[in-house]
Write a structure and sequence with these properties.
Keywords: Repeat, Transferase, Ubl conjugation pathway. The protein is mostly helical. It is 70% helix and 1% strand.
Length: 597
Amino acid sequence: MLPPSSVLCLSELFSVIRRVKSTMEGCKNGSSLWGLIQTERLSNQFHVFVKEIARALDILPLSLLTVTVDIKEQIELLHRQAKRVELYVDPKEIQTRDVLLTLMASEKSMFDVETVKHVFNSVGLKTVLDYEEEMSKLEDEVHKQAGTGGLIVVSNINNLISLVSYAKSMVFNEESEENDVRQVSGSVGKSTSASFNVPDEFRCPISLDLMKDPVIVASGHTYDRSSIAQWINTGHYTCPKSGQRLIHMALIPNYALKSLVHQWCQENNIPLMECSSNAESEKKTCEKVVDHISATKVAIDSVKRTAEFVIGKLAMGSVDIQRQAAYELRLLAKTGMDNRRIIAEAGAIPFLVTMLSSNDPRTQENAVTALLNLSIFDNNKVLIMAAGAIKNIVDVLESGKTMEARENAAAAIFSLSMIDDFKVAIGAHSQAIPALVGLLREGTTTGKRDAARALCNLALYNANKPKTVAAGAIPLLIELLMDDKAGITDDALGVLALLLSCPQELEAIKKSRPLVPLLIDLLRFGSAKGKENSITLLLGLCKDGGEEVARRLLINPRSIPSLQSLAADGSPKARRKADALLRLLNRCCSRSHNPVG
């Protein structure tokens, strides 16, 4: 009979060794590149295994076991070594891992072929088949991590797949693959004429067609990318199948299912990107259009790959990489509605919202600017608000690490507040309006303008008007009207004109004595928009007990000629209001002396 402690020790050793074997098999059968990125984690895992072996051997009663001296000495040596072993990470692997991370964070155009080959050769990737198997293993890893790793891990692996795919095209001559494509295209006529029963699991639940690019949404259901993107872009933010509200709008590629679909297509001799066959006459008619569509598709695919690649870099953890990735997304979202749509569909928004809290000034600035650029596409406004971005954007607006970050936060609020519901949500944030007023005071001309425009949008919702007045906006706006360097006259007038509708705001404006002569001058020399807002302000100030303002107008020798000129030559809106103000002044004047001409 073995002593009980011996049984416990051997049972624990068996458990540890079984886990060591499983981990080693996972390393052997899994992705080599993903294993390289996980070098430190795997090294730490094996270090833990060794420490567990040491603890198990602590309770082994060697003196009670009938073993030879040699075996006893070997066990004691193992015990001593296991107890004093320290964590070891191979410096060469770390160096290679860092090179790989640099490649993942670099522009594709900057890749050095020899560097790529060296890194990939170091983990056993030498042939085209090796590269293809590596991508397949990475796709399997995505499937395994989808439920546990979270968006960051999945994004990292997708980033790695994009890198391997691009590296494969760089390193190898793909003439043989092009020949295969020609052979497949030659058989299109035969295959498309046949009718196939597509398995239900390969059909998109929305279109019921064969999924060419399956993606997983936040609810865990899979759809074809084009169908679910169209669903989301038309204002739906729930899972079509379950009705569950999507907590984020990231579309995670389902590489495992995509691989099965491709395999099924190959087995049934169906081209992977099969389209409906057209008559020969239709093909001739559309010949020129096809070239344009192909070019457009290539451009869109390029943006999509780039977006996925860059988003992956946001999750790398390094401050330098995050800064660079946010900057690249900022530039990519700067032009083109398609770019903005594709970036959002790739899942960039939640990552950018997180980056708003970065301690690195440039990362924060790039993230808020990227969100500003993305918000120009209306559907992205909803995604940004759904991601809970407003709190972080207001934090940047209030205390951003650079003035540019603060100003772009104001511009983002201006863009988001274009939607009526968001005027309410933004105004409900206790610091949003005060922070805009603060930037109105401290910002550059561009920042002041964006802050004023944001306040103008928010003031369209009546509940936000008292908050704007309480934040001290009125005296500051009037001060800015008198500041020739501020450069936001029309925007400041627009905010003041909106604030007239409530008694509290009106009284606050009436108290400013320099305002009336300033508005009279703007009637003569302001822009068309400035004249409209100036006459709106003057008319509002003179109505409902504004006799004091009316008297100030009558005393000023420039007021009547300016109003008469505007009534004759202004815009229809300005003419109506100028006529109304002249009539009001005429009534006021007739009560005391001669009428106004």
